[in-house]
Structure formats: structure tokens, C-alpha cells
From TrEMBL:
Domain of life per record: Bacteria
Pfam families to which the protein is assigned, alphabetical: Peptidase_M17, Peptidase_M17_N_1
Phylogenetic lineage: Bacteria, Pseudomonadati, Pseudomonadota, Gammaproteobacteria, Lysobacterales
This protein's name: Peptidase B
CDD domains documented for this protein: Peptidase_M17
Length: 458
């Protein structure tokens, strides 16, 4: 997070930002000095949402900033300012239109993000001063969101299965957690044949990474993240356009890692198990073929209808293993289907669950956190869409109907009915720059999930 959000000090050291609307602008103008009123008129400032203007004092120094806002969108209200305002310390003035400071500050911090691995940003962001208590609440959420974005934005050459495992080991060291990893043929010996089958064609061996933390007596929380570090589609090769951003196909793992970091930082009283099946879906002599039948940890035999439906294969082994722990809650997060994007677009992760009350609560929390999700049904009649003539079922089928639902139903086969389960099918990406959401990797549903876990266990 760097110094994007900072502790409030003396108001004399901070430049005031006043939120205004077209309706309040006249009243604001009336109390300004004549020179500043003239400056507003000369610049044609109308308080349109997202537009801002700096007001100089008598010596020509920046004294105050007016920013046009939409009161219904506090997250976006200040999100463009950290990269637009001169570098300095700012505060939100209570004299302006009331905004929910928590969401406005979160938008400021997330709007300040820039990916720094290869190119230094042209400038550092301006800083927003906050009360210490609010700063303490927001800093971990901002750091977790930055972590997701950094992981998703990192090219596969720098972040394959082994490097993803190293990131989890570093996280474990920070929180005195334990890590166990099964690599390559060890997956077969340990009972994870589907993970092995998907990743075996790559020169980078597949693996399952398990982080464990917490007390044995506490309720179990299992978080599973899809870690396909690059997805060519396998022998069912993607098009060039479809493959272009497939470094992001480990976005579910990025979310799971960040969520685990939040849980451990908050020291929630849970017995945490983070599971990341990490693979490259590559083409090679050992690549999966359409029509192959593979084993799974749960004992099902699965016919491969499409090698590009690989995420559900690796998640199935991890879910079955996580369910063996009989957790109080099992969550999986995955960039799983294009069908979810067709149905809901890029902004809304698709949520699936058998627990109505739990799902409805998560959706409500997401609205309050400016981190929305949308629930889709686990429509059981659609199980017929992955029927197989030679195996227990297939990983897909000829129909293009209800792709996100079919994928969720496939995963459900590996989660016993008595285990509470949430499945998020997320995009983990912004196609364009928007206030608080720069183009590239994105954390979607992360804040909502953590707030749900705080409510459930905190």
C-alpha cells in the first residue's frame, strides 16, 4: 500500500478535499473568497462527478480541492484523485457532501495502484490522511487487493507453479503457518490424479500446495484457489485472443492466498487450510486428449470432453481433499468459465451455494462493501449436460447452455452434502481503466468474503 493512506496529523499540514454536487456548488461558491469564485467561473467547473479543481490561496499555493461526486457511488468519489492531484497530504473535509469515508478512502487507495514489476510509475500517488482506527481497518484490505492484482498481473514466465508455491511459503513464514507440497509424480502417490493429469504435459511440474494454520480445536475453514498459471486450452487449443490474458487463470489462487492472508492477519479463530492446485495447461507428448478417462481423488472416473475445461479437474481433487477435513466452511475461488462473463459481465463474480442463508448474506455484504456478487442456481436437472457413456460423467458436453452452472454442478459432485460450500466464478480482471479499478488484475469478492468470515468467526 506504500503511503497512499496515512495517519491523520494536523489539519494545517493537509490540503482539504471538499465533495460537491451541482446542487451544492452555489452554496460552496458563495462562501469562497472573490478570487477563488472568479477562478471557478473562469475554469467552468460544474461539479460533474469525477471532475475536480484546485483552489489557490493568496500566495498561489494549493489551498483546497473541490471534487464533483455522485453520492450514490462513494467508492468512485475520490478514486481518480491520487494519480491526478499534486503529490502531498490530503484529507476529506466534513464541510462537503457527506460520503462514507471508508468506501471513499478504499476507492482512493485502489485507484492509486500501479503494477511495478517492470516499469516504474511516472509519479507517486498523493496520500489521503485518515483516523488511525479506520486506517488500521483498511490497510490489510488494501494490501490484500494489491497482492491479488500483483499476482494476476505477473506473467507466467515469472510466476509458474513453483513460484506460486514460494509465495505461499513466504506467507506461511510471516504467520508461523505450515506448508506441505506434492510435486509431479508425488501427486499420483498421494491420491491427486486429476491435478497430475492436467499438469503433466508442461515442463514445469504440477503441484498441490497446502498451507495450514490455527488451532486444532477451532472450526475448520478450507479455502481452495484455482492455480492454472497459464492456460493454452491444451489440445483443444484456445484462439490467440482467448489465450492472450491467460496468465490470469491463476486468479482464483491469487484470491485464495490473499483471503488466507487476511484471515491470519486478523487472527480469526479458525483452523485454516489453504489449498492451491498449481499447473500449466500445456501441449506436449503427455497432454490430455479428448476422450481420455482419468481418475479423481473422490473415486469418480471422468471422461475428458474438452481439455480446456481443466480448472474444474484440478479443483475437484483439491475440493475432495479439503472436504475430507469436514470443515465448518469450504470456499473455492476460480476464474472458471467464460459463460459466467457472458451471463454477468466482467464486474460480477458468479456465486453458487447450497446454503441459502449463507449465500444471501454474502450477497448483502458484498453490496455494503462495494464488492458485489450475483448468485446463480445449482440447477440439478443440468447435470445431464455432462453425462458420459464410458465414465461416471464428463468434464463437459456438447451443449453450450448454462456453462457456469454446469461447471458449478461438476464441482458440487466432489463436495459432500453435509459440508457448507461457497463457489465463486470470478473474472479477476479489469478490461479498461475505471475509477478505483485500473486495467489488469482485480480482486473481486475478496472484501465480501473476508467480511463474511469476520462476521461468522470474529
Amino acid at each position: 500500500m506504500s503511503a497512499v493512506l496515512i495517519p491523520a496529523a494536523s489539519e494545517r499540514d493537509e490540503i482539504a478535499i471538499e465533495a460537491v454536487t451541482a446542487e451544492t456548488l452555489d452554496a460552496v461558491r458563495a462562501r469562497l473568497p472573490a478570487a477563488q469564485r472568479q477562478w471557478l467561473a473562469d475554469c467552468g467547473f460544474t461539479a460533474a462527478p469525477g471532475r475536480w479543481i484546485g483552489l489557490p490561496d493568496a500566495q498561489g499555493r494549493l489551498e483546497r480541492v473541490l471534487v464533483g461526486v455522485d453520492r450514490r457511488e462513494p467508492f468512485a468519489a475520490l478514486a481518480e484523485l491520487p494519480q491526478a492531484l499534486p503529490i502531498g497530504r490530503y484529507r476529506l473535509d466534513e464541510a462537503g457532501v457527506p460520503l462514507e469515508l471508508r468506501l471513499a478512502a478504499l476507492g482512493w487507495a485502489l485507484g492509486a495502484y500501479r503494477f511495478r514489476l517492470y516499469r516504474k510509475p511516472s509519479r507517486e500517488p498523493a496520500a489521503l490522511a485518515l483516523p488511525a482506527e479506520l486506517l488500521g481497518q483498511l490497510a490489510p484490505l488494501v494490501d490484500a487487493s494489491y497482492l491479488v492484482r500483483d499476482l494476476v498481473n505477473t506473467p507466467t514466465e515469472e510466476l509458474g507453479p513453483a513460484e506460486l508455491a514460494l509465495d505461499i511459503e513466504r506467507l506461511a513464514d510471516m504467520h508461523q503457518a505450515r506448508v506441505r507440497t506434492w510435486v509431479g509424480d508425488d501427486l499420483l502417490a498421494a491420491g491427486f490424479p486429476a491435478i497430475h493429469a492436467v499438469g503433466r504435459a508442461s515442463h514445469r511440474p504440477p503441484r498441490l500446495i497446502e498451507l495450514s494454520w490455527g488451532e486444532e480445536a477451532d472450526p475448520g475453514l478450507v479455502i481452495v484457489g484455482k492455480g492454472v498459471c497459464f492456460d493454452t486450452g491444451g489440445l483443444d487449443l484456445k484462439s490467440a485472443d482467448g489465450m492472450r490474458n491467460m496468465k490470469k487463470d491463476m486468479g482464483g489462487a491469487a484470491h485464495a492466498i490473499a483471503l488466507a492472508a487476511l484471515v491470519m492477519h486478523a487472527r480469526l479463530p479458525v483452523r485454516l487450510s489453504l489449498l492451491v492446485p498449481a499447473v500449466e495447461n500445456a501441449i506436449g507428448p503427455q497432454a490430455l486428449r479428448p476422450g481420455d478417462v482419468i481418475a479423481t481423488r473422490a473415486g469418480f472416473r471422468v471422461e475428458i470432453d474438452n481439455t480446456d475445461a481443466e480448472g474444474r479437474l484440478i479443483l475437484a481433487d483439491a475440493l475432495a481433499y479439503g472436504a475430507e477435513q469436514r470443515p465448518d466452511l469450504l470456499i473455492d475461488i476460480a476464474t472458471l468459465t467464460g459463460a459466467a462473463r457472458v451471463a454477468l459481465g466482467p464486474d460480477l463474480p458468479a456465486l453458487f451455494s447450497r446454503e441459502d442463508a449463507l449465500a444471501e448474506r454474502l450477497v448483502a455484504i458484498g453490496r455494503a462493501q462495494a464488492d458485489p456478487l450475483w448468485r446463480l442456481p445449482l440447477w440439478q436437472p443440468y447435470r445431464r449436460l455432462f453425462d458420459s457413456q464410458v465414465a461416471d460423467f464428463a468434464n463437459g458436453g456438447p451443449s453450450r447452455h448454462a456453462g457456469a452452472i454446469v461447471a458449478a454442478l461438476y464441482l458440487e459432485r466432489f463436495v459432500p452434502a453435509e459440508v457448507p460450500w461457497l463457489h465463486l466464478d470470478t473474472y479477476a480482471w479489469n478490461d479498461t481503466d475505471r475509477p478505483g479499478r485500473p486495467r489488469g488484475g482485480e480482486a473481486q469478492g475478496l472484501r465480501a468474503l473476508f467480511a463474511l468470515l469476520e462476521e461468522r468467526y470474529g
